[in-house]
């Protein structure tokens, strides 16, 4: 969301103080505040697409994460304030607390809707952080940390034009600059999508340079955008349900597409094997001729020109100078035998592989249309060909499956395919494997964690060393930064185990 869109949602809230009726949680990355009057305030706070909306009967259930439990317990009472910092993507909600057998003191909830850095942070009235959905450590940002006990710091100050109070002359800094880019850089609350919308309402091209005669139309367009920042030139942003469906569908389709490519390559191999059957007859004939004329051929020759007694025509045969004529003949016999075996296998396997490929293509089309409940069920009950993938698959003490990546691509695939409740591990500070403990949110015993940590240390640059630190966290706290190479990730809320980098007993 962009600043003006957030401001429009806050304007639609009833007058404060506003009674509230508690929290509901439809997902690990969504919270719903039930408001008096029947409307719900929906906060989608996980990167990269945070969202703040008002909805009717948004649904949801009990808390799903430790932070959600803290939020439900501490953000209580009437909503006293809902304030946006300028038109930035930061909103502060203040709750009045409750009196009872155990008083709940007033708190503030800071919602940072800043794309990949989105976060939901609970503080006391002095700004001291009580908890956050995503902790920010000094390793991630040495200038601005988000951890319990620290004081929340707002984003750095900036100076931009406020579109709510613009006069025509205020827009002169845009002259001579590409319209959409100039709006984003100069006008508060405007991002790329609203800049394109403003250009559309002004009847201008987003990429053209701003001229003096454009300023009146542009000012009127910005005024309408302040009143109604609804986008008209593109589809509305996907809802949390659509985003969840896309996220669940992606690993299922990725596994099926990988299997499809494997089957297609196999069919290509079978076609080549059938084409090589004609060569097998020629290689067999070369072997026969070399044995028949072996006593006439000199040693260490790289070529032989022999007369084929069936056709009467001369035949030129390439030889390995390091082998004798009879050994060269044996080499051609082996090549002919292998080619016949491959062709025979291709004849037998190709029809079955084609049938499997056709069924797989039908399955891909089915998965593309599956609704959310069915996608969730599919991910819980992965079929064998869907679950199979790259990397080592081992069984740890306690019965947990452990995945180990062996290169960048496998690391990337395993981490993307893991469940949000799986445990992710990596040797600290050195190149190495991503290791996944397939926990799916279940408690993992220390014995299992140590087993997986030794695997992470052993499959890293620290192999053979003693007392190697291995970080571990839940997979939902691991993400690949925009533009990063496969296998390069950032992570938060990690703990560290120290193990010897030796292969554990399997």
From TrEMBL:
Domain NFACT RNA-binding positions: 399-480
Gene3D superfamilies, alphabetized: ibrinogen binding protein from staphylococcus aureus domain
GO cellular component terms listed in the entry, alphabetical order: RQC complex
GO terms of molecular function: ribosomal large subunit binding; tRNA binding
Residue ranges that the Swiss-Prot or TrEMBL entry lists as coiled coil: 253-280, 326-370
Keyword Coiled coil assigned: yes
GO biological process entries: rescue of stalled ribosome
Protein's UniProt keywords contain Kinase: no
Pfam families: NFACT-R_1, NFACT_N
UniProt entry keywords in alphabetical sequence: Coiled coil
Protein name per UniProt: Fibronectin-binding A domain protein
Organismal lineage: Bacteria, Thermotogati, Deinococcota, Deinococci, Thermales
């Amino acid at each position: 969301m962009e600043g003006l869109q957030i401001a429009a949602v806050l304007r639609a809230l009833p007058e404060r103080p506003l009674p509230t009726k508690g929290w509901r949680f439809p997902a690990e990355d969504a919270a719903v505040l039930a408001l008096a009057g029947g409307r719900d305030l929906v906060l989608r706070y996980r990167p990269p697409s945070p969202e703040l909306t008002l909805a009717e009967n948004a649904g949801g259930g009990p808390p799903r994460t430790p932070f959600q439990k803290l939020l439900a317990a501490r953000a209580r009472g009437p909503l006293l304030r809902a304030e946006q910092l300028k038109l930035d993507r930061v909103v502060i909600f203040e709750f009045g607390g409750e009196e009872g057998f155990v008083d709940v003191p007033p708190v503030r909830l800071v919602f940072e809707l800043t794309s990949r850095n989105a976060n939901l942070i609970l503080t006391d009235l002095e700004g001291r952080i009580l908890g956050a959905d995503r902790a920010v450590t000094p390793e991630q940002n040495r200038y601005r940390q988000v951890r319990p006990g620290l004081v929340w710091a707002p984003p750095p100050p900036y100076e931009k034009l406020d579109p709510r109070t613009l006069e025509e002359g205020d827009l002169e800094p845009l002259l001579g600059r590409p319209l959409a880019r100039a709006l984003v850089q100069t006008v508060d609350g405007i991002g790329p999508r609203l800049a394109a919308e403003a250009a559309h309402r002004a009847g201008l091209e987003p990429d053209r340079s701003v001229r003096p005669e454009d300023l009146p139309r542009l000012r009127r367009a910005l005024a309408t955008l302040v009143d109604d920042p609804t986008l008209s030139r593109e589809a509305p942003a996907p809802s949390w349900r659509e985003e969840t469906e896309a996220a669940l569908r992606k690993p299922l389709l990725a596994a099926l597409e990988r299997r499809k490519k494997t089957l297609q390559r196999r069919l290509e191999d079978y076609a080549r094997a059938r084409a090589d059957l004609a060569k097998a007859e020629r290689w067999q004939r070369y072997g026969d001729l070399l044995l028949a004329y072996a006593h006439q051929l000199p040693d260490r020759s790289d070529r032989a020109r022999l007369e084929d007694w069936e056709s009467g025509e001369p035949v030129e045969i390439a030889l390995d100078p390091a082998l004798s004529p009879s050994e060269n003949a044996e080499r051609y016999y082996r090549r002919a035998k292998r080619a016949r075996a491959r062709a025979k296998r291709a004849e037998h396997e190709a029809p079955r592989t084609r049938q499997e490929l056709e069924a797989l293509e039908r399955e891909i089309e089915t998965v593309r249309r599956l609704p959310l409940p069915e996608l969730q069920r599919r991910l819980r009950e992965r079929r064998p060909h869907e679950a199979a993938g790259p990397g080592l698959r081992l069984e740890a003490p306690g019965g947990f499956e452990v995945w180990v990546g062996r290169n960048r691509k496998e690391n990337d695939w395993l981490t993307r395919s893991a469940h949000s409740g799986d445990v992710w591990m990596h040797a600290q500070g050195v190149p190495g494997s991503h290791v996944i403990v397939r926990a799916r949110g279940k408690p993992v015993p220390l014995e299992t964690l140590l087993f997986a940590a030794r695997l992470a240390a052993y499959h890293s640059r620290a192999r053979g060393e003693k007392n190697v630190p291995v970080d571990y966290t839940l997979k939902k706290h691991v993400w690949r930064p925009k533009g990063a190479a496969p296998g390069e990730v950032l992570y938060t809320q990690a703990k560290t185990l120290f193990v010897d980098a030796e292969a554990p007993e399997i």
